[in-house]
């Protein structure tokens, strides 16, 4: 297996983590030719090699996007929603000057994305995450990024580690090619580092196969539980990853967090830029660099920022902070993984569409919002989501908590609350199935699962409101890696509903009223 | 434990059509595609959408009032010009603005385009493309799924159909960037012989009937072909060959991956002017464009891949796959658990362009027809210059392609003083001549003189099973050259080519 020559002065050699597929991938032979060509001393080389349509045949010469102006108000999101703010036009041209022209953006390109776009994103990543020594690969959003990273490392028979409640749209994908999941126990603060270590220590390669070498987590505004990992837990988890040689996939949907205190206000990952309860400084600095610095200081340090080994692949997206249909994101990783991801992109999706790359490049450029303006938008977006969260919590208190059948957490980031339902108060709740469990630590001892299913269906069919039941997110347990003493089976802890506060106040209010009513009816017959 | 709404309705529909056709599509699926689970969140969402008035608090979709784009405008050529491509290139024609809005009426609202969707793509775009398909190919019974262009679509089809150890069939010279993408999945390629008219049906038949599963593994069940302007050879399959190939596929139960990015770039078409006047461009073009495998696909064994890369721009990264509904559903599941649906920007643009406020399908076909004229002009220029500067020496020859962007130039190495035919192959099917060495020498010589063409060896498929005796390296005496560059590139490039060839041979 030939690997590109990588400068290994910094970081560890992590090539042994690559899957067979990633190792066996053959470089595009046309690229070999391009390399030979690039080494040619002839300066005015005529190329009759490729079938790129000439740019004069592209049927567009200008693209314009109407976007909010972010400079004229301290809260651009509210102004935009009220239609009270100014708008600004972002232009892309074919023949006139702009940050990334139609002429440059629309030909065939290589996997990592266009240089102009990678440069603005690298600049943004450096400003916000200050990673030690990393490279940016563009993706078509987090789903594309994550599933590509899974293919990069996952081999039939491998086990990957993740939160015991995780995002099945992602965790289901490598199941199809034989990667299994090991769920790590969580509490309200997210994944418990000691539990992670326990699983690794207890792992018996003779029985269970290769010890897990990949950890997939959503550290901010975790989906579905809404929890955010503290700095202390992050440090412990990184140290465990170093000891056990784990790759960390940090899924950082650009999240806002809810500000709270200075120590625990950190952004989530896909939800990283949606963090709440961030203490607001008295004045908004006029100096752009100051503004960015202040903004950064309100965000939680990422795994990427502490990644001296190069074992973190951080996955970011514009979906949550611009729009899901953008389908544009990026992976930040060490150089070897960056090159492998670029090869894989060449052999699958190809680089992201020109529209998104042009839009983001113009937006972050001098002609658009600039990085500072984008941070202003993010900050304002956090405030908007925080208001929605607070609104949901208020209505919840009034309409649901008052029933005594459920409670809710107050997430610091993301878009979800995790509603705990007190099934033990239900007249048909059954406990004490130990006899049926045969002593297995993972077999349910209560009928929680059945009641949750009933509740989900009742809410949907008679109340007309849909929440996602926690069973959808539960990673199946296996007695091979679960403690036998004192362990409460996950099935008995699967007593939650995930609710979003991303909707309108009307939806939130109606939804909570229906939930309260549905709970009363469910528990009282 | 997970109580998902079942996907039975869709599955039942697929099963019913299976029985009608007495075809077992699932036999063709890879192990991975068979066990892939539907996205559970999307399944719940689908059920929840069914009942009007249901409040969905399940998903984390940002509300559309938070999208920071309320309008997109694209300045495009007016399609009312007599020859829109010429007017556009010379900046003499009118221009139009195609607009998408978030809060105002349009064909595909940005509220929909920028939200999360499902793997197949948005209904507005799929419907428009299904309509285009119907008017061009009138396929028997097929479903349209969107892709991120043909590379994305094709590599997804490989994952859908290929298991480690499988052998797939392809043309002996083909677009190796794609065939290489299948190698790490454990798929081996079996090359089929070609002549000037493309792949030879009798050779396909020979390979299949001689196949010995005991020594060669599973008999190939997939063929990958580029029927129009085959890349790199530029050949276009005749209707007769297409029918023969489809018949062989029918007999041997082969899935046909019809990769057709150059379908719309056809030359010397003889479009009937009175048909245009009477029925419009779509009907007039459909009458003269080649018949696709899709159009004859009564078994549902064709997966046809179309793309906007060549007729709009490569950076569009948008295309569509037309297949039976069973494969379409499996493909959508793979899309949902990998790249996700295509970007909203491209979908919005296409929906408006093909919609009633844009060019419409017929206007789009007028653009395509005008584009064909422009590329045909470039091809003709290329062939004229080639005759004057290159063919005259007798050291190289080429046929004018009927479609696409490439000319396949044969180098008549047998006239070279150092050409040797007495080499002993070191492996079965290995070369008996020094063709590769001479071609490599010529490629480097051209590079030194300031010209790049693609050597045939880049596209040569060496038999992956080691049993074919194909001696392909004796037949790599070709270059692929494109005529899509400017007139100047064509003139200067071919002048260098002719001069360098003479130096090389003499």
Automatic annotation (TrEMBL), chain A:
Record-annotated Aminotransferase class I/classII large domain positions: 93-249, 302-494
UniProt organism field: Suillus luteus UH-Slu-Lm8-n1
Gene3D superfamilies xrefs: Type I PLP-dependent aspartate aminotransferase-like (Major domain) (3.40.640.10)
Protein's name according to its UniProt entry: Aminotransferase class I/classII large domain-containing protein
Region (Disordered): 1-20
Protein family (similarity comment): Belongs to the class-I pyridoxal-phosphate-dependent aminotransferase family.
Keyword presence, Transferase: yes
Domain of life of the native organism: Eukaryota
Xref: PANTHER family: AMINOTRANSFERASE (PTHR42790), KYNURENINE_ALPHA-AMINOADIPATE AMINOTRANSFERASE, MITOCHONDRIAL (PTHR42790:SF19)
Single GO term (MF): pyridoxal phosphate binding
This protein's UniProt keywords: Aminotransferase, Pyridoxal phosphate, Transferase
GO biological process, one term: alpha-amino acid metabolic process
Cofactor: pyridoxal 5'-phosphate
CDD domains linked: AAT_like (cd00609)
UniProtKB/TrEMBL annotation, chain B:
Lineage: Eukaryota, Fungi, Dikarya, Basidiomycota, Agaricomycotina
Classification via InterPro entries: Aminotransferase_I/II_large (IPR004839), Class-I_PLP-dep_aminotransf (IPR050859), PyrdxlP-dep_Trfase (IPR015424), PyrdxlP-dep_Trfase_major (IPR015421)
Family according to the record: Belongs to the class-I pyridoxal-phosphate-dependent aminotransferase family.
MF annotations from Gene Ontology: pyridoxal phosphate binding; transaminase activity
Key words of the record: Aminotransferase, Pyridoxal phosphate, Transferase
A Pfam family annotated for this UniProt entry: Aminotran_1_2
Native source organism of the sequence: Suillus luteus UH-Slu-Lm8-n1
Required cofactor names: pyridoxal 5'-phosphate
Protein name: Aminotransferase class I/classII large domain-containing protein
Source organism, top-level taxon: Eukaryota
Domain Aminotransferase class I/classII large: 102-492
Coiled-coil boundaries: none
A single BP term in Gene Ontology: alpha-amino acid metabolic process
CDD domains in the cross-refs: AAT_like
PANTHER family from the UniProt entry: AMINOTRANSFERASE, KYNURENINE_ALPHA-AMINOADIPATE AMINOTRANSFERASE, MITOCHONDRIAL
């Amino acid at each position: 297996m030939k690997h590109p020559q990588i400068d290994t002065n910094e970081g560890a050699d992590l090539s042994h983590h690559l899957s067979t597929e990633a190792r066996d991938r053959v470089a595009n032979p046309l690229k070999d030719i391009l390399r030979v060509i690039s080494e040619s001393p002839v300066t005015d080389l005529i190329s009759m090699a490729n079938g790129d349509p000439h740019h004069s045949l592209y049927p567009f010469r200008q693209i314009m996007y109407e976007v909010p102006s972010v400079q004229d108000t301290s809260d651009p999101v509210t102004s935009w929603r009220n239609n009270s703010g100014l708008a600004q036009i972002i232009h892309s041209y074919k023949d006139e000057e702009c940050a990334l022209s139609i002429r440059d953006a629309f030909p065939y390109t290589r996997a990592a994305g266009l240089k102009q776009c990678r440069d603005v994103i690298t600049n943004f990543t450096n400003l916000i995450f200050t990673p030690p020594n990393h490279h940016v690969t563009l993706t078509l959003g987090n789903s594309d990024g994550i599933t590509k990273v899974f293919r990069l490392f996952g081999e039939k028979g491998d086990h990957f580690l993740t939160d015991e409640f995780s995002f099945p749209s992602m965790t289901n994908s490598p199941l199809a090619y034989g990667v299994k999941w090991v769920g790590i126990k969580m509490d309200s603060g997210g994944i418990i580092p000691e539990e992670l270590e326990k699983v690794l220590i207890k792992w018996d390669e003779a029985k269970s196969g290769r010890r897990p070498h990949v950890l997939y987590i959503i550290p901010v505004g975790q989906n579905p539980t809404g929890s955010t990992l503290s700095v202390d837990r992050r440090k412990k988890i990184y140290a465990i990853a170093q000891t056990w040689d784990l790759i960390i996939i940090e899924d950082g949907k650009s999240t806002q967090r809810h500000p709270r205190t200075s120590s625990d206000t950190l952004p989530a990952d896909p939800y990283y830029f949606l963090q709440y309860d961030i203490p607001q400084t008295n004045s908004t600095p006029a100096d752009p660099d100051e503004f960015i610095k202040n903004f950064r200081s309100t965000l939680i340090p990422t795994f990427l920022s502490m990644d001296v080994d190069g074992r973190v692949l951080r996955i970011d997206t514009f979906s949550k902070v611009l729009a899901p249909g953008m389908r544009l994101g990026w992976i930040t990783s060490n150089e070897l993984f960056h090159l492998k991801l670029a090869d894989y992109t060449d052999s699958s999706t190809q680089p992201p569409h020109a529209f998104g790359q042009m839009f983001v490049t113009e937006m972050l450029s001098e002609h658009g919002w600039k990085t500072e303006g984008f941070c202003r938008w993010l900050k304002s977006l956090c405030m908007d989501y925080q208001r929605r969260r607070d609104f949901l919590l208020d209505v919840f208190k009034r309409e649901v908590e008052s029933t005594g059948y459920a409670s809710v957490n107050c997430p610091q980031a993301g878009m979800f609350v995790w509603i705990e339902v007190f099934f033990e108060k239900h007249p048909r709740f059954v406990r004490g199935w130990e006899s049926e469990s045969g002593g297995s630590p993972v077999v349910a001892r209560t009928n929680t699962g059945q009641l949750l299913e009933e509740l989900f269906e009742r809410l949907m069919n008679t109340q007309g409101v849909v929440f996602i039941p926690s069973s959808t997110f539960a990673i199946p347990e296996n007695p091979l890696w679960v403690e036998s003493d004192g362990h409460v089976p996950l099935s008995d802890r699967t007593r939650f509903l995930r609710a979003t506060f991303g909707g309108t106040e009307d939806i939130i209010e109606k939804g909570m009223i229906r939930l309260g009513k549905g709970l009363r009816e469910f528990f009282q017959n | 434990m997970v109580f998902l709404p079942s996907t039975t309705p869709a599955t039942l529909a697929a099963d019913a059509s299976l029985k009608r056709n007495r075809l077992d599509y699932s036999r063709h699926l890879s192990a991975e595609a068979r066990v892939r689970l539907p996205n559970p969140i999307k399944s719940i969402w689908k059920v929840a959408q069914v009942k009007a008035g249901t409040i969905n608090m399940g998903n984390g979709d940002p509300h559309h009032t938070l999208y920071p784009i309320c309008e997109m405008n694209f300045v495009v050529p007016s399609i009312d010009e007599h020859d829109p491509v010429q007017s556009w290139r010379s900046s003499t024609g009118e221009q139009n603005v195609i607009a998408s809005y978030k809060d105002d009426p349009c064909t595909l609202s940005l509220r929909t385009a920028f939200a999360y969707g499902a793997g197949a793509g948005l209904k507005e775009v799929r419907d428009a493309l299904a309509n285009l398909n119907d008017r061009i190919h009138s396929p028997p019974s097929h479903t349209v799924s969107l892709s991120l262009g043909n590379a994305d679509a094709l590599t997804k089809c490989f994952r859908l159909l290929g298991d480690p150890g499988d052998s797939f069939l392809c043309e002996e010279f083909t677009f190796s960037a794609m065939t290489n993408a299948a190698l790490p999945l454990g798929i081996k390629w079996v090359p089929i012989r070609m002549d000037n008219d493309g792949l030879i049906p009798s050779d396909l038949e020979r390979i299949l009937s001689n196949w010995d599963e005991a020594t060669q593994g599973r008999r190939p069940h997939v063929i990958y072909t580029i029927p129009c302007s085959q890349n790199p050879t530029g050949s276009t399959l005749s209707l007769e060959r297409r029918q023969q190939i489809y018949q062989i596929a029918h007999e041997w139960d082969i899935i046909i991956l019809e990769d057709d990015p150059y379908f719309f770039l056809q030359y010397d078409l003889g479009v009937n002017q009175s048909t245009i006047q009477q029925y419009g461009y779509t009907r007039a073009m459909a009458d003269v464009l080649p018949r696709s495998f899709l159009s004859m696909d009564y078994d549902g064994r064709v997966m046809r891949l179309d793309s906007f890369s060549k007729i709009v721009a490569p950076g569009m990264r948008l295309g569509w796959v037309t297949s039976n509904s069973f494969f379409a559903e499996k493909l959508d599941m793979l899309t949902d658990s990998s790249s996700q649906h295509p970007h909203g920007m491209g979908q919005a643009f296409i929906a408006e362009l093909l919609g009633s406020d844009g060019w419409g399908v017929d206007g789009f076909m007028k653009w395509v027809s005008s584009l064909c004229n422009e590329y045909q002009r470039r091809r003709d220029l290329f062939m004229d210059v080639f005759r004057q500067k290159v063919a005259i020496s007798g050291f190289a020859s080429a046929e004018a392609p009927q479609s696409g962007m490439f000319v396949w130039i044969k180098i008549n190495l047998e006239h070279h003083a150092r050409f040797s035919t007495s080499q002993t192959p070191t492996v079965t099917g290995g070369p008996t001549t020094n063709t590769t060495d001479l071609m490599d020498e010529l490629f480097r010589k051209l590079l030194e003189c300031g010209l790049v063409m693609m050597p045939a060896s880049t596209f040569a498929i060496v038999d992956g099973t080691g049993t074919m005796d194909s001696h392909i390296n004796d037949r790599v005496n070709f270059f692929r050259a494109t005529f899509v560059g400017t007139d100047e590139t064509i003139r200067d490039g071919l002048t260098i080519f002719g001069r360098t060839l003479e130096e090389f041979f003499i």
